[in-house]
Amino acid sequence: QVQLVESGGGLAQPGGSLRLSCAASGFTFSSYVMGWYRQAPGKQRDLVATITSGGSTKYVDSVKGRFTISRDNAKNMVYLQMNSLKPEDTAVYYCNAQRTTAWNTRRDYWGQGTQVMVSS
Questions:
Q1: Rounded Cα distance, 103 and 34, in Å
Q2: What percent of the chain has pLDDT above 90?
Q3: What is the full DSSP assignment across 29-69?
């Protein structure tokens, strides 16, 4: 069975840091682009960052320079280091695994999410 389990969320002060972790199992981790998404109540789920198996990264503009996504293919882990946190970073953060097949069919797996709250 496919599992993505997030951890590391919690409460941080503005300007503080948190490190999110995602443990993956049940699929070929190295074949998937991994990502972090976030969703606040009543709002859509938005992309935060992605990382390919080779380490190529992309970030939404609002987190560039503050967040760093990384992965360890040997451990089937993906991380999101969040620095200089802002109140607008408050959301449930979801780990995502995505793969587009040779027939251009997208497959997505999702974790249950971990809450991040940034407040003074």
A1: 20
A2: 93
A3: GGGSEEEEEEE-TTS--EEEEEE-TT--EEE-GGGTTTEEE
